[in-house]
Structure formats: C-alpha cells, structure tokens
Amino acid sequence: MNAFLKKEWMEWNRTGRSWILMLVFVLFGIMNPALAKLTPWLMEALSDSLADTGLVTTAVQVDAMTSWTQFYKNIPIGLIIFILIVGGNFTAEYEKGTLIPVVTKGLSRQSVLAAKAVFLYGSWTVLYAVCFGITYGYNAYFWDNGIAGNLFFAVACTWLFGVWAAALLIFFSAVSKSSSQVLLGTGGTALGVYLLSMFPKLDAFLPARLLRGMELLQRVKSPEDYYANIAVVGLMVLLCMVLSVGCFDRKQL
Questions:
Q1: Deepest in the core among 84, 147, 207, 252, taking most CB within 10 A?
Q2: What is the pTM of this model?
Q3: 217-251 tens-digit pLDDT
Q4: Cα 127 from chain centroid?
Q5: In the chain, what is the straight-line distance between the N-terminal and C-terminal CA atoms, in Å?
Q6: Where are the domains of the chain?
C-alpha cells in the first residue's frame, strides 16, 4: 500500500494534477478576500456610469463576512474542478492495464482501493485547508473573523461534503469502466440530492445542507440543526466504501 501511495504521488506530479489543483485552490483562497476588498473601489468606479442610467449607488461596507460569502460561492466550484480532474483516477488504470501486474504479483485489491481512497481524501483535505487557511489569514489581517459565528464548525461541514463527493467518486470508479460514467454517476447523484433538498422535510437529512455554511456564520442556524445531516453523510461514506470494496474485488481488470 505504501508503494502504491508513492506511485499515486508520482503520477499526480507527472501529470500535473497536483500543481493544477493547488493553483486553483490557492487562487480561490486569495480571490475571496480580494474581491471583498475591491468591492467598494469597483462600486465607486462604476458610480458615474450607473448614475447616467438613473441608478444611484451608496457606500458599500465590507467586512470578513463579505469574504466568507465569497468563499462559500467559490468552494463548490473548486470541488467540481477537483472531481473533474481526478474523475479518471481509477479508469485510467483500467484502460492502460497497469493494475494487472501489481495485482498478479500479490498486491491485494483492497490495498489498491485503500491507497487511492486515502490519496483522494487526503488531497481534498489539503487543498481545502489551503484555500480556507489563505482566506482566514487575509480576513484576520484586513478585518476580524470574530464576526462569523460557528466558523470552524461550518467549515468542517463543507469539508465533509467534499469527503462525501469523493466517496461517491470512489464507488462509481469501482463499478464503472470509463471516466465519463464515473462523472455522470457522481454528478447525477449530487444533483439528485440537491433537488431533493428543496423539500424541507428531506433537507434536514441530506448532504446538501452542509454546503450552506453561511447560515451558521450568520447564526441563522445552529450546529444542532446539522447533526442529522452529518450522521447521514457519515453512514453514506461508510456504505460507499463497503460497496466499493465488494465491487472492486469482483471487477474485471
């Protein structure tokens, strides 16, 4: 398993995945406070042209909450980019036949699956932490993060949603033969969950609520409102991993 983890790391560096994803999440981390900081200047620059159309602009007050609002707009995009780039992590191995030699030489399929799962979960965790850390640092420098309520709990919930999405990707990678099938399965499931969350009674148990961290930051919701969602997501991640092991053991490589 350690050898396969090293292989994953070398492959990600060789294909440029790690650098592309790191660049994307660093940029998002910088953009969140930067856009908030530039908003008053942009409104002032546009005030004359807007006045010609009959619109009157007023002074815009920005704070750390403005930056965190931007964070929660950007992080779903970052997660989508992450899924798109790593969606072929398993299927590329099937197409090239690179798993056959290592499996026939004694490496268990469970170790292969575990190594890839650990690498995916670890990559998402590091990238997310980098994006959050940059935003948090700039917000603390320019404003005060104390204005945001339940900040770390809200951020942990959004991270957990990304773990759930990665678990779906692993499951569909274990049962599918192409990256398009993996992306369709993962995206279709996430879209279905989002649509179902429009029903209030279902929303209290579905993963989609974990992305709405601004409700926690603005103290509209309390952490207790998210406990059921967290429990359901934990069970779904565990179920995805158990099913992935069973399907991967029977998969034709």
A1: 207
A2: 0.88
A3: 998 999 999 999 999 999 999 999 999 988 887 77
A4: 9
A5: 18
A6: 2-249
